[in-house]
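Please, structure for the following, as tokens.
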Amino acid sequence: MSILSSAISAPSLSHLVGNTPVCRISEPFATGGRGFWAKLEGANPGGLKDRAALHIVERARMGGELAPGAMIVESTSGTFGLGLALAAIAHGHPLTVVSDPGMEPIVHGLLAAYGARVDTVTVPHPTGGWQRARLERVRRLLAAHPGAYCPRQYDNPDNVDAYAPLAGELINQIGRVDVLVCSVGTGGHSAGVTRVLRRLYPDMTVAGVDSVGSTIFGQPARPRLMRGLGSSIRPANVAHDLFDEVHWVAPHEAVWACRTLAATHYTTGGWSVGAVTVVASWYARTLPPEARIVAVFPDGPARYHTTIYDDAYCRGHGLLGRPPAAEPDEIKHPAEAEVTRWTRCAMAVSA
């Protein structure tokens, strides 16, 4: 074995994940020296969910749930699948990811290049949408392959625990955190980061950012353009009791934020990045200048070149030239009205 090949091991791949940088986001999102800090999780090989994928797989191996060489099977819209591909290579497991036609071609191609098998469902579940259809396919695959392991990102508590190191990095990089802004999909990083930071900063405000058309916080489930945040199911890892408020953001608002970030800060990303920027910049404009606001940017822009950064796609979906309003709409309870644009509710309610 060569020196180079012997150096490529599970520990060396694991060390590629974490210790991501932060970036100060200011004008034009906030003026007068105001702004917020963005935690750039796109600096990980695959994005934010590399942390969870590696942690879950390693815990499953240690606990005997995942036998050496056994198959891993999971539902994903993309980012968690990329993280699982890293974990599967690091630990020597075949990987099957179940997705749907919304997966971007670049992600499908990367997963195949990383050795994963991509199983695509073609018909959404009549009430649970694409996510429910994917989960049902996962169950069938597990039944057909005894000994296969599913990480269960939506309800596995190890998904939450995986993000404690991210919180520790923020403590070292930022110090005090007054407001934490997180997109919400599986609920893993919002719960994991909040639980650590609240021990030090009990008065910290936590804002969950959801997609219009998502059922996580009690809105009706609708077809959604945005991927990576929101859900048509109710993930058990979403810790509703930790949120002080929830904001729903629409696709055109996220597109404006992503493209403005690219033009003014070079740092940008996907739907979740745009959505949390809309909300974090509002806090930066409205809170005292000394408030320390942190937003988690889950990924970078590459996988969105055919959606957010494609003019024809955005024109076709009416997403261009429609910045968010200066202030969100306000509702007192998610059941009060179905939201269609940036809207705030100062009480996070479980569906």
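The domain at 50-152 is CATH 3.40.50.1100 (Rossmann fold). The chain has two domains: 3-45+163-345, 50-152.
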